Amino acid sequence: MEHTGAQAGQPQDDGYQGDTPAPVPAPTWRRRLFIDRPADLRAFAHDLADAAVLAIDAEFVQNYHRRGPEDPSHRLTLLQFAFDNDYRVSYVVDALRLNDLSPLQEPLERATLLKLFHGMSSDVRVLASRGLTPRHTLDLEAVSRSLFGQRESGLQAMLRRATGERLDKSLQRADWSRRPLTPAMVAYAARDAEVTYVLYHWFRANYPDATHTFEVVADEPPAGVAVWLRPYLDNGRGGKPIDITLAEAGLDNNIDAQIAALRQALGADLRPNQRARVMRLITDLELRELAPDLRAYLTSSASEERAGAARALGRLHAFNATEAIRALLHDPVQDVRQAAQTALGFLEGGVTARPALRSERRNGHRIWTTSQHGAEPAAEPAPSEPWRAALRAHFALPDDNGGA
């Protein structure tokens, strides 16, 4: 890691325009241990017996050759770890040479040990391909995105914000399946886990509420929402189109039940990214009756909720929310500013939302049609943008309202 020429803790782009807590010095691990023997792996697992926090990163390569239909798409090559041992040593485990990673199973599943990731979805999938399932986890990328936006949620951007230092990414495209690894590759691999550990303590010191919000405890009970909604909370698309899900649940023509379920979900104990996915469902289903419920989230502390509410209210043509959305043009998070601009395009710029699909049975067949159920009373036409009016006048075209 090296210092940048920018002011400590301040990225050089304008993606995030809010205040940032004072940066902290980045600690240095005194030693990095490469593990490629079973005995050393068992010793490392034993060292984790008293650990409370474990940062994890993984390196993997795509399976191009001799891949069977049931084989994973990626092959795990390295696992990197840093934990609360006073910065004595971090670890890099050779997952190619060690066929048996079972000594790591108990620590990763231990409910009292918090496992840290930065962008955990792909790491968790590749860990599962080796029989390892982390329980009690925290994805710091999700915390970063909620506070600072998608553009600045990357590991390098967050390290610069927290410490004023830059993460060396020169080996980002290295072939992690090659052996032997060079000392530089081992050090590079270990650094991502070390940085994740450093960021956790910075977040916990400066943003404890946001950090706690995204912590997933072991054996967490299912979210208090309708069963048919649950797949959409952790995967915005839920694995299948919402219309198919509603048809399977027998709710495709029961608009009142849809509204009740989604209103309950909005008020449930969800993480901000999950609630934003509920907002997207409300938008896709064109449930304008829920627009008043969405307005409260325009002032949420979580950027994805502010952005999600703005986008939804714009597409639902909630004209009475225009001024509240306009205020978000000055939001510190770029994602929210962009969402506000998009919403105002629907509310002021003449952009038309795509009608929602509805289904019904006719003569034993399911027919899909567009519907304007729940549409608000007709409002005054949105004023044309100046350039559009000038263009129409130049070519003597009818205006947007049908006039000459």
Estimate what percentage of residues fall within beta strands: 5-15%
Indicate the structural class: alpha/beta
In what order do the strands lie side by side in the largest sheet?
Answer: 2-5-4-3-6-7-9
Let me know the average pLDDT: 85
Q: CATH topology of the domain at 2-216, anyone?
A: Nucleotidyltransferase, domain 5
Oligomer: single chain
Radius of gyration: 25 Å
Helix tally? 16
Describe the main β-sheet briefly: 7 strands, mixed
The CATH H-level superfamily of the domain at 2-216 is Ribonuclease H-like superfamily/Ribonuclease H
In sequence order, what are the helices and strands, one letter per element? EEHEEEHEHEHHEHHEHHHHHHHHEEH
Write down how many β-strands occur, each being a DSSP E stretch of 2 or more residues.
11
Helicity, as a percent range? 25-40%
